Recover the amino acids of this structure.
């Protein structure tokens, strides 16, 4: 297979984001919605939404399936809580994430089907990927989409999507990411040590940052929120994926260097460091 390969390094992201004009406002920083959070999994949506907030999006909406979900994020009330059904009534979103904590209920299936049929840029994660692996007609909907779609599988989700073993995926990570990108006509972010970002044209990037501190629940939700936020701020989907993967791993590297981890690092601790890194990268012009 002839491919075009690259290593993600700091020099690729100088500056990281378009400069903000002096008359910038929340509308010019873009809008993101996160849908998921079934019973017992509300934290996944909160982590993704908070990551979108800390990485610079102007408006962030969080919608949870759980009927007893909080109607406010008391830690970050900047995040606007909505019902999943109401998200479709919002003005144009720059990016919509569906999947964190979504579950695999009939309601989840209906929501995913609805959004796959819409001309809306999507970031698909977690249970959205499990549903696509479970129901072939959803994979057909993904392939038929004319709007950009990003998939962010970890190795287990990739194994389910491709009907392969985890070992087989790990032995051929680059090939797996490219095959998923091609077969589903998406940008694939195959998470793990040396995260691979692949496009359907066989171009791919391997990340140079990150460490075992990221092997904890919630870090994938944070990455998903960062990707959506960077798209909202004007980056192309593939550039957003590359920068998000890089700073997500770099944040963990900085924290471990400071003695915060690798044991016991939490996904929430990445947020402030991601914000710091994005601002630092934007100053290196």
């Amino acid at each position: 297979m002839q491919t075009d390969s690259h290593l993600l390094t700091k020099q690729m992201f100088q500056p990281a984001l378009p400069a903000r004009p002096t008359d910038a406002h929340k509308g010019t920083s873009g809008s993101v919605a996160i849908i998921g959070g079934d019973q017992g999994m509300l934290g996944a949506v909160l982590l993704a939404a908070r990551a979108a907030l800390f990485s610079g999006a102007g408006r962030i909406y969080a919608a949870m399936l759980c009927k007893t979900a909080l109607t406010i994020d008391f830690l970050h009330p900047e995040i606007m809580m909505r019902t999943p059904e109401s998200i479709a009534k919002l003005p144009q979103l720059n990016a919509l994430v569906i999947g964190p904590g979504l579950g695999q209920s009939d309601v989840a299936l209906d929501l995913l089907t609805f959004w796959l049929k819409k001309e809306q840029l999507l970031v698909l994660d977690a249970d959205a990927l499990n549903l696509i692996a479970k129901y072939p007609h959803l994979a057909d909907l993904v392939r038929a989409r004319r709007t950009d779609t990003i998939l962010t599988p970890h190795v287990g989700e990739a194994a389910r999507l491709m009907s392969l073993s985890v070992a087989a995926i790990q032995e051929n990570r680059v090939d797996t990411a490219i095959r998923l990108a091609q077969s589903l006509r998406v940008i694939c972010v195959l998470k793990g040590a040396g995260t691979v970002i692949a496009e359907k044209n066989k171009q791919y990037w391997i990340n140079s940052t990150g460490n075992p501190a990221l092997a904890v629940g919630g870090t994938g939700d944070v990455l998903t929120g960062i990707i959506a936020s960077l798209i909202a701020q004007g980056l192309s989907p593939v550039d957003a994926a590359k920068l998000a993967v890089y700073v997500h791993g770099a944040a963990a590297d900085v924290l471990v260097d400071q003695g915060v981890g690798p044991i016991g690092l939490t996904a929430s601790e990445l947020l402030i460091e991601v914000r710091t890194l994005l601002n630092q990268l934007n100053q290196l012009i």
User: Anything to note?
Assistant: The chain has ten helices and ten strands. The beta strands are 4-8, 31-36, 59-64, 80-82, 95-98, 122-124, 149-151, 187-190, 196-198, 203-207.
